[in-house]
Amino acid sequence: MEKRRSQVLAKLVELKLELETHRESLIIGDDTGNIKRIKYHEFVMQSARGTNVYCEVCLICGFRVHDKCIDQVQRQCVSTQIYKTDFSLSLQICPENSLRNQNFRCAECLANISFDEESDKIPRLCDYTGLFYCSRCHWNGK
After folding, report:
1. Phi, psi of 78 (to 5 degrees)
2. I want to staple 43 with a disulfide (CB 3.0 to 4.6 A). Which of 56, 60, 88, 110 is the partner?
3. Is residue 46 over pLDDT 60?
4. Domain assignment of residue 22, given as a range
5. Is the dihedral of CA 60, 65, 70, 76 positive or negative?
6. Partners of 66 in the beta sheet?
7. C-alpha span between 79 and 76 (Å, rounded)
8. Alpha carbons 138 and 18: distance in angstroms, whole number
9. Neighbours of 67 (CB within 10 A)
10. CATH of the domain at 69
11. Do 76 and 139 share a domain, yes or no?
């Protein structure tokens, strides 16, 4: 458990540094005309000289997407939840839920998912929402 906590903390620090880099480039004036807003995400479109020319990163939440896939983003930026007037943190990790309650479908893209050995879409349980997702919509903290 302690090893996992250290990994999560290291990833948070890495993402925070990346976010600050993007914010600094905005303040300096780099890429200001290069922001693409989709579903409340704010992506700074990188040039070929960027650190990762394949993925764009939301300045607000850190969501990553390929530049070619950016117009197909379905996930709304989590910042919209935080700024709601009725927002409250759930201190209960992984609320009880079942895949049956979701009709054996991914909570985001609605693809069929199941624990069957023949299934190519194994459900992934989100520790925060308690909902099940396919591997395309939930990355198990990666």
Report:
1. -65, -15
2. 56
3. yes
4. 2-82
5. negative
6. 55
7. 8
8. 21
9. 14
10. 3.30.60
11. no
Count, residues in the chain: 142
Give the predicted TM-score (pTM) of the model. 0.45
The three state secondary structure string of the chain is CHHHHHHHHHHHHHHHHHHHHHHHHHHHCCCHHHEEEECCEEEECCCCCCCCCCEEEECCCCCEEEHHHHHHCCCCCCHHHHCCCCCCCCCCCCCCCCCHHHCCECCCCCCECCCCCCCCCCCEECCCCCCEECCCCCCCCC
The pLDDT value given to residue 141: 64
Closest by Cα among 76, 62, 85, 137 to 107: 137
What is the distance in angstroms between the CA of the first residue and the CA of the last residue of the chain?
A: 16
- Mean pLDDT of the region 18-32: 64
* Structure-token pair, residue 33: 């005309």
What would the pLDDT profile of 83-118 be if each residue is shown by its tens digit?
A: 666 666 666 666 668 899 999 999 988 999 988 877
Percent of the chain at pLDDT > 90 equals 10
